[in-house]
Amino acid sequence: MPIYTKNLGWVLETANLGYAIGLDAHGLLANRYWGARLPYPEDYPPPADPRAWPFHNTAHLTNEEFPAYAGPKYIDPCLKVTFFDGVRDTLLNYFSAEIKDLKGVQELILTLNDAYYPLQVKLHYRCHVEHDLIERWAEVENLGDHPITIERAFSAQWHFPRGSQYRLSHLAGRWLDETHLHREILHPGKLVLESRRLTTSHNANPWFALDRGSATEEQGDVWFGVLAWSGNWKLVAETTDFSSTRLSLGVNDWDFAWRLEGGQTYSTPSSIAGYTPQGFGAASRILHNFVRDRLLPHGHTLHKVLYNSWEATTFKVDEPSQVQLAEIAVKMGIELFVLDDGWFQKRDLDNAGLGDWWPDEVKFPNGLGGLIKAVNGLGMQFGLWVEPEMVNPDSDLYRAHSDWVIHFPTRPRSEIRQQLILNFARPDVQEYIIGMLDKLLTDNNIAFIKWDMNRNVSEPGWPDAPGEARELWVRYVYGVYRVWQTLSDRHPQVIWQSCSGGGGRADLGILRVADQVWTSDNTEATARLSIQDGFSQVFPANVMEAWVTDAGRGLVPLEVRFHVSMCGSLGVGGNLLHWDKSERDLAASLIAQYKAIRPLVQLGDQYRLISPQEHAYSAVQYVDKAKTESALFVFRTFIPDPAQLPQIYLRGLDLRSRYEVEGYGVRSGAAWMSAGLFVPLKNLESKLVRIRKTE
Ligand code: DGJ
């Protein structure tokens, strides 16, 4: 049974994980344990007794599951509110517990009530048993008549076993250079990661992995988790002055306030976390499986090899030029042709058109229908780029509704890329965009949408907000989810890609509506190796859209550029008119090879064997779930000769089964994993090695 109660304590168990909560001697709801699943209920320790430390307030010492700001507490809380009378102290007491069974998924709901005010907090814990993950969120309900202002409502505080020094792994970067992996030791104090940009951001990601400083890809205790949210977020890793380490995660409280009227409930997004003794690689694979099995709208659907014309033609698109590209693309084995920016009303540069989502009459005199017919006639599906949250001041939409953008009336409206942000918190804006895009999808045979979002927020005002204007940060994100979900419900055949100037909106919140993420605007293959390695910490390969473009052409061989992109969901984005016959032939042969390994790359288990973030010679392996087939990619960027290249030890194979490793013969899985193989490469070379089980 995944959840059970014992002596006012609750134990949550998944296949391999145990998580125990209980009331401590002071009645505080405390974490008792988070780690490997234990054999017996009585194995889970009781809450630590904070009285062992006199003269200090107990909150520093109590692993409270959901601390509110109250009393002499100086640790970072999950909840801070102001009551109608100005009181800003929230004293939560345990009230009740309930266990629900939702179609086989068990959920524990713990209810806490304020000692005086009619404020109720429900903590939800859902056990994803076979995925080895626990999902948490909180609901804050105003049971009275007077409004309550919420100033912070995080999703969870996670506690780590006391007494160790921890190392935090996290992702950091910037536009064109996302998802670099950083590992740093946590010292007393707080380490804060966040986004204040309205979206998840290119700069950091709401993902964490904590270990005791010595875990590797394959072994060591790793506690990891995410916030499933696509807006402003905050992560606070706090090592207290009593050597306990905790990590809180939630919607950023920066500039945030939420007015909770009587009878209303505010729900936080989910934080989803797990534990494994098998290192960072296993932690990633747990997340990958969960994303594919539980989140993605199209689950295990294999993604088509696409061509996207952006880097070839930028805004200079029209029907003949796109048909010309499509005719070349199809001969290379491309299955989906995506028309990017530039197709709509007056969109010749980035200074006009956003908001007016109908085809430019000069470029597409037959509407999109002419191009779509040609693309479909060639046997390919058709996809389209849109940027629904944006508007150019030079657009019919802005001329009609200049009040629809996020702004402060007395301040300039800062433009970035000559565009402003439509306030998706507003229901009228949501309805307008739903209507526009619904028509586009109804009138045209569109199989794929790339939903872009190309700027960060500024002047975050909502002048005619019906209530508290600082709710914008949250209502905007729910607005985006609502528009997206409505369109997706109406057009279930469409595959959606989340793009935000590359990887600016990659998170487990958006992956409930989008099947893919455009990983980065940086398509140069050697730079991509590191970006993709970081991306894979959280996201599976089918989510990772990767194009072969002309970036690095002339320096990095086409085969290497393909191999890098074949590690994800393969696309092509170069100017095919400039590719000579030998390049097109090579591309066709590599696309055919990709199709042969596509199921195991997109849906198999990924093993990061040698990290490109650490070595100029790197390797990554994909193994299908049945362990019958595998693909190994090896890359060498630049190492001065004479180079000493490492042996590659395969992973994920059956120990006793025999496998043929292309070009290396047949040996047992144990042999390939223990004795390994040597793959010699020169600078800027790569190799795809296929592996098949023979018996
Ligand atoms: C940013 C995206 O990341 C690019 O791939 C491209 O779609 C441009 N926007 C188009 O404006």
Describe the structure concisely for a colleague.
With 695 residues, this protein is of the alpha+beta class. Helix content is 19%, strand content 31%.
Textual characterization of the structure:
With 695 residues, this protein is of the alpha+beta class. Helix content is 19%, strand content 31%. The protein contains 11 helices and 36 strands. Strands 6, 7, 8, 9, 11, 12, 14, 15, 19 and 20 form a 10-stranded antiparallel beta sheet that branches. Strands 21-22-23-26-27-28-29-30 form an 8-stranded parallel β-barrel, surrounded by 5 helices. It is globular. (2R,3S,4R,5S)-2-(hydroxymethyl)piperidine-3,4,5-triol (DGJ) is lined by residues 310, 340-341, 385, 452, 454, 499, 501-502, 518, 521.
Task: Supply Rg.
Answer: 26 Å
Care to count the β-strands?
A: 36
Name the average pLDDT.
96
Biggest β-sheet strands, sense, barrel: 10 strands, antiparallel
Structural class: alpha+beta
Q: What percent of residues adopt helix (DSSP H or I)?
A: 10-25%
Write the layout of secondary structure elements.
Layout: E1 3-6, E2 9-13, E3 17-23, E4 29-36, E5 79-82, E6 92-102, E7 105-114, E8 119-128, E9 133-142, E10 148-160, E11 167-174, E12 177-185, E13 189-195, E14 207-211, E15 222-227, E16 233-239, E17 245-251, E18 258-260, E19 265-267, E20 271-276, H1 279-295, E21 306-308, H2 310-313, H3 319-331, E22 336-339, H4 369-377, E23 381-386, E24 390-391, H5 396-400, E25 420-421, H6 427-443, E26 448-451, H7 472-490, E27 495-498, E28 516-518, H8 525-535, E29 544-548, H9 558-565, E30 569-572, H10 581-603, E31 605-610, E32 617-623, E33 629-636, E34 658-661, E35 665-668, H11 669-674, E36 685-693
Parallel strand pairs: 21-22, 21-30, 22-23, 23-26, 26-27, 27-28, 28-29, 29-30
Antiparallel strand pairs: 1-2, 2-3, 3-4, 5-10, 6-7, 7-8, 8-9, 9-19, 9-20, 10-17, 10-18, 11-12, 11-14, 13-16, 14-15, 15-20, 16-17, 24-25, 31-32, 32-33, 33-36, 34-35, 34-36
The structure holds (2R,3S,4R,5S)-2-(hydroxymethyl)piperidine-3,4,5-triol.
(2R,3S,4R,5S)-2-(hydroxymethyl)piperidine-3,4,5-triol binds at residues 310, 340-341, 385, 452, 454, 499, 501-502, 518, 521.
